[in-house]
Amino acid sequence: MNSPFHRLEEFVSPTEPEKSKLQRHFGEPRKIGRGQSIRKEGDRIDGIFFLLEGWIASSILLRDGKRQIVKIHLPGDLLGCPSLALRESGETLEALTDARISPIPNCAIGQIFKEAPRMAVGLFLSAQKERVALMQALAWVGASQAVERLAALLIDLHHRLSVVDQVSDGAFEFPLTQFQVGEILGLTYVHVNRTFRKLDELGCIRRGKGRIEITDQARLQSLAASTQPSFAGAFAWERLGKPFAA
Fold it and tell me: Does 159 fall in a domain?
């Protein structure tokens, strides 16, 4: 796996001392079992979390009792940042696989800005990138067909997992159930099942147990491209520059 700080390294080029300063503010890593919650909506905000291993879902509960998954987090992501602006957590963080996280308490966040300002800039800009990703996800749900939404999700996961060396010959682990995919894309289980079959028939993907292989990336990306807002033309699939590298 690449550096756990690959998300920060999109914006800065941290030195080893800077990485050490940041890690000193991390709490002891803890294991989270699949299906366990890290924090629930309404819980007190004690800080954020750095995801070391595994997949985590960030979700909100709707008024009708349904769940909307608003983000799938992968290794290197920060968890719970939006709720820092609230008194109580506005989201539930739940492990979709066995996972490992390091907590970053509230008191440490200010110290990071003081002691490792360039790393703090990386944290800040990484959080802003998350905001753009959520804007893009809103476009998936609100202005595209089911096959385009699913294509966009698979391309996004493929890209993000590639960065952490978890894609081999176009294939990657896919622990999401079709019900969970529906919670991400705003589709019913039946519609998700039908849409997966459509991508199979188009020759875009090949499915195995808990695994997906992208067999025609160009075609899948072409389907996904129609879901992208104009501002995000190269956002999802190309690495950013490092405006704060110096």
Answer: yes
**For the chain, what is the HEC assignment?**
CCCCCCCHHHCCCCCHHHHHHHHCCCCCCEEECCCCEEECCCCECCEEEEEEECCEEEEEECCCCCEEEEEEECCCCEECHHHHHCCECCCEEEECCCEEEEEEEHHHHHHHHHHCHHHHHHHHHHHHHHHHHHHHHHHHHHCCCHHHHHHHHHHHHHHHHHHCCCCECCEEECCCCHHHHHHHHCCCHHHHHHHHHHHHHCCCEEEECCEEEECCHHHHHHHHHCCCCHHHCCCCCCCCCCCCCC
Q: Does residue 127 sit in the same domain as residue 19?
A: yes
Look at the chain and report how many structural domains it folds into.
Answer: 2
**Model confidence over 191-221: pLDDT tens digits?**
999 999 999 999 999 999 899 999 999 999 9
Alpha-carbon distances, residue 188 vs 2, 66, 191 (angstroms): 36, 12, 5
Residues 63 and 167 placed together within one structural domain of the fold: no
Q: Using the 3D structure, point to which of 134, 155, 173 is the last residue of a domain.
A: 134
Averaged confidence pLDDT in the chain: 85
Q: Is residue 232 part of a domain?
A: no
Say if 241 falls within a structural domain: no
pLDDT tens track for 24-81: 888 899 999 999 999 999 999 999 999 999 999 999 988 887 889 989 999 988 899 8
**171 part of a folded domain:** yes
Write out the residue range of the structural domain in which residue 46 sits.
8-134
